[in-house]
Amino acid sequence: MQEAGIAEFRQRLRGPVIEPGDPGYDEARALYNGMIDKRPRLIARCVDVADVIEAVNFARESKLLLAIRGGGHNGPGLGSCDDGLVIDLSAMKGVRVDPQSRAVRVGPGCTQGDVDHACSAFGLAVPAGIVSTTGIAGLTLGGGTGYLTRKHGLTIDSLLEADVVLADGRFVTASADQNADLFWALRGGGGNFGVVTSFLFRAHPAGMIYGGPMFWGLEDARQVMQWYRQFLPKAPLDLGVFVGIKTVPSAEPFPREIWGKKIVALIGAYNGGAAEGEQAFAPIRKELPKAILDWVGPMPFTALQSLFDPLMPKGLQWYWKGAYVEELPDQAIDVHLAYAAEAPSELSLMHLYPIDGAVHHVGKDETAWSCRDATWSMVIAAIDPDPAKADALKRWGRAYWDAVSPYTTGGGYVNFMMGDEGDARIKATYGGNLDRLTEIKRKYDPGNLFRVNQNIKP
Ligand SMILES: Cc1cc2nc3c(=O)[nH]c(=O)nc-3n(C[C@H](O)[C@H](O)[C@H](O)COP(=O)(O)OP(=O)(O)OC[C@H]3O[C@@H](n4cnc5c(N)ncnc54)[C@H](O)[C@@H]3O)c2cc1C
Fold first, then answer.
1. Would the CB of 135 count as within 6 Å of ligand 1?
2. Angstrom distance (rounded) from CA 380 to CA 136
3. What is the pLDDT of residues 191-247, one digit of tens each?
4. What's the pLDDT tens digit per position in 95-137?
5. Residue bearing the CA closest to ligand 1, atom 44
6. Residue minimizing CA distance to atom 19 of ligand 1
7. Which whole-number Å values give the CA distances from 125 to 117, 173, 237, 268, in the listed order?
8. 312 exposure class (CB count in 10 Å sphere: 0-12, 13-18, 19+)
9. Which residue of 75, 225, 339, 450 could cross-link 400, Cys pair, CB 3.0 to 4.6 Å?
10. CA torsion angle for 174, 175, 181, 187 (degrees, to 10)?
11. pTM given for the model
């Protein structure tokens, strides 16, 4: 690439363009997943839509590989690339909440925590993820699940509008009334169609909640999981609770006597008052053995949303596998227990996030995200701070996923996939919506400029 071209590009942007050798390059290229190490040729830290248009045009005209970075949390590091241009949106923050209409305008560099914080002043929340450092952009475009999903649906089900810079540099707005095909595709189709420069969401009431984690020893795991699978369909939709198999971290504030103990956990929230919350959690406390840890109680929604942050700082090694699950038969529980016993590290986990309730009230073909008859989104995550453990993490994650696959739908949440999943998984994930997605990709990005993602080929 010509230095003169880069110098000119730099001048046309308000935000900085960071190159190898520049101070701050290593910090700017670092991703959340320490297992992924990418060295982009240029990082354009855009500050506004004009910068994004310049960067998209520059990448296309220079035939540079292009990656879009929101929060940089993606498992396989699809917010970056080797030798190409990264459009880094992290400086494009800003949340405007209209408390009357409950419409929330969100910049593409916002994290989950930015949105939660801004909404909390009005006792509101946008239904999204459960860890505050996650980027809201990537999370939304893949679907978005969290504690409020059972009542209010996926994050995309609360998306009203998005501003997008297309592959040819045009700026458009996508909503139910404008560019409706693009709006359909953005809701689950990931970063395949353009750079989203602004999101407009509908928020929902969420102030104080009644929630937190409950743990039981692994010896009770079968009973807890069997009970949970019966309980969930009857539970009030305001109760968002997931089941996980984990290890108690050997760290404060957990009681020392259970440090390092393998456990099954129910973690969730009742979105409402303490009295109703206590009632919603009562069957869990009454019908299951006494929990070895019960930290469920009233707390601000934002406190629950940042509960896991200290355990998951940036830079750990992560290997993920995800799948959608319709039922949890005893044979699947056996597989979970067998792999729990062999977990390669304290942080490694399996979670089953409910995607029932309001998610099922939207038709399979109403948005690109199509797995609306699943009950859970499963994630297996092998996690450790030590890079020397990377191979062991991958081995466990892959073997676990292979063993449990017969009990999954074949498709998986694009936000819980690694980079090595292949076209067959994309097909299984989008099912009957793939043809329409391909058509829309052909219309908006025929040259596949946006291909650093779980790619829908034009
Ligand atoms: C600790 C942790 C907790 C998580 N918890 C949840 C959870 O509770 N619920 C949930 O649903 N998911 C969760 N996830 C998964 C998360 O949704 C994905 O990692 C997602 O990719 C993160 O988005 P990002 O913007 O941070 O990612 P990035 O790495 O910045 O980007 C990811 C992908 O999105 C595309 N993209 C990003 N921004 C834009 C944009 N503005 N326009 C177009 N394309 C864009 C990129 O091209 C890339 O392909 C979690 C992940 C982690 C690591």
1. yes
2. 21
3. 999 999 999 999 999 999 999 999 999 999 999 999 999 999 999 999 999 999 999
4. 999 999 999 999 999 999 999 999 999 999 999 999 999 999 9
5. 191
6. 74
7. 9, 23, 16, 16
8. middle
9. 339
10. 90
11. 0.97
